[in-house]
Design a protein that fits this description.
309 residues; Rossmann fold; Quinone Oxidoreductase, Chain A, domain 1; 2 domains; six-stranded parallel beta sheet; 10 helices; alpha/beta
């Protein structure tokens, strides 16, 4: 089968499209014929050697963390899925999605949303789980509460807005001027232009800041969190001393595969409560261009690799 692997860390040039052996599932695993794979910022971090889970001892390494496709084989002890079932999955780091067939633990996999094609389904797992776990598992967001989401037009952000609204929360988000209408259509209640407006002057205190930007944006976010609220980031650990002074709970987290949560997303999508936005698609041999597309500051939604028809 074909796969995109790296044999050393570095720039886009280290990615190679190669022929490798097709794997076979062990206990509690399924083999997925991959139709599409999502492209995420963490893929570039792994390629560059900046993601601690992947080290030189893991090389050569297949990149990619989430996929959609069909069950091609299953271990003898797996009864949850049948051959030919349409599925999607957020993979653990030991398996990469930029390949024609990938192994996945059965608890990482869920039935693909019926209303999505394979490309749309591939756009969901990592970004969706990152948004869900940040808002609810770590942020504790509840119905009737207020949340400020930094970077609401991106892959994770566009899911976070919709998940928060589905939960019954009030949502503010920082975006560019050109993305205000886009996030309004997703359900955002207040849109702030991060280039020309200061969110700390415009947003009334919130229960949660969900930070997908980091840096000075995170630092300024302390001013809008209510006492007893939370500031949760995917990028960097917020200032714990300042948080203690303001009675704010803070944290930085890494999303974890969870097939049960994926099934919740599938239901929300099929019920019309969440829509998936694919910004662009690329063929497997265009993986360098796909990763480069993530640097577009005005990217709306997700970038996806098309691997099989």
């Amino acid at each position: 089968m074909q796969a995109v692997r790296i044999h050393r860390f570095g720039g886009p040039e280290v990615m190679a499209l190669e022929e490798i052996d097709r794997p076979n599932p062990s206990a509690n695993e399924v083999l997925i014929k991959v139709f599409a794979a999502s492209v995420n910022p963490v893929d570039a971090k792994m390629r560059e050697g900046k993601y601690p889970v992947v080290t030189e001892k893991n090389l050569p390494y297949v990149l990619g963390r989430d996929v959609s496709g069909q069950i091609a084989a299953a271990a003898d002890n797996v009864s949850t899925f049948l051959i030919g079932d349409d599925v999607f999955a957020f993979l653990s780091p030991e398996h990469g999605g930029y390949e024609e067939f990938v192994l996945a633990r059965v608890d990482e996999v869920a039935a693909k949303p019926k209303s999505l094609d394979q490309v749309g389904a591939a756009a969901v797992p990592l970004a969706g789980i990152t948004a869900w776990q940040g808002l609810f598992d770590h942020g504790g967001l509840r119905q009737g509460q207020r949340v400020l989401i930094h970077g609401g037009a991106g892959g994770v952000g566009h899911f976070a807005i919709q998940f928060a609204k589905a939960k019954g929360a009030w949502v503010a988000t920082t975006v560019s001027t050109s993305d205000k209408e886009f996030v309004s259509d997703l359900g955002a209640d207040q849109m702030i232009d991060y280039k020309s407006e200061k969110f700390k002057d415009l947003v009334e205190p919130v229960n949660l800041v969900f930070d997908l930007i980091g840096g000075e944006t995170q630092h300024r976010s302390f001013s809008v969190v209510k006492s007893g609220g939370a500031l949760i980031s995917t990028l960097q650990e917020p200032d714990k001393a300042r948080a203690a002074d303001q009675n704010i709970r803070v944290g930085r987290y890494t999303a974890q595969p969870n097939g049960a949560q994926l099934q919740k997303f599938a239901d929300l999508i099929d019920d019309g409560k969440v829509k998936v936005v694919v910004a662009d698609t690329f063929e497997l041999h265009e993986v360098a261009e796909a990763q480069a597309a993530l640097k577009d500051q005005n990217l709306r939604g997700k970038v996806v690799l098309k691997i099989a028809g």
